[in-house]
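Work package 3, deliverable 3.1, input record:
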Amino acid sequence: KNEVEQSPQNLTAQEGEFITINCSYSVGISALHWLQQHPGGGIVSLFMLSSGKKKHGRLIATINIQEKHSSLHITASHPRDSAVYICAGYFGNEKLTFGTGTRLTIIP
Amino acid sequence: GAGVSQSPRYKVAKRGQDVALRCDPISGHVSLFWYQQALGQGPEFLTYFQNEAQLDKSGLPSDRFFAERPEGSVSTLKIQRTQQEDSAVYLCASSPAPQGNYGYTFGSGTRLTVV
């Protein structure tokens, strides 16, 4: 069964802190997506990666294929980063399998 | 259009009422997906179209749910005789290629509340 698990479920941090959100998945993944969802809003795609590391601004995503694990990092966190972050796996059958999300709150 | 457009953004339906949710994908995108997201949960797959063909409807929770994409562009998700458990955000996503590893663009979703 294709499974994606995230941790933590909730994360509260002070502005400026370095944030790490973790995602683990079952075998056979072709690509892993990191997505951002604001309250009442749709989903924005942040990264799609199948190996190594990607960086965009203050966001960094890494994936370790052998360990079946990915992390999303946010440097110098800001209150506007507050959102739900979701990882999703593409297992080669067209659709995504989503984790349950991590609710991040950054306090000024 | 520039993105995936969904309408309405919010829908309140009385239990037993039929509803229709619309998704307008990015022009030319081959693949279209519907997902259901319950409160506090990650999205769950409902159905997938490649052009006008519905290739996977394994996630539709009951025969009250029906989706179509007759001309390979706009899609409609219809829910008949709505129940309270149908209350959720319904997300639409499109992708330029049959295989999802070309990335997805999501709409803002339709929040359905059944009262």
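The interface with chain A takes residues 4, 6, 31, 33, 35, 40-45, 48, 50, 55-56, 59, 91, 93, 98-101, 103-109, 111 of chain B (CB under 8 Å).
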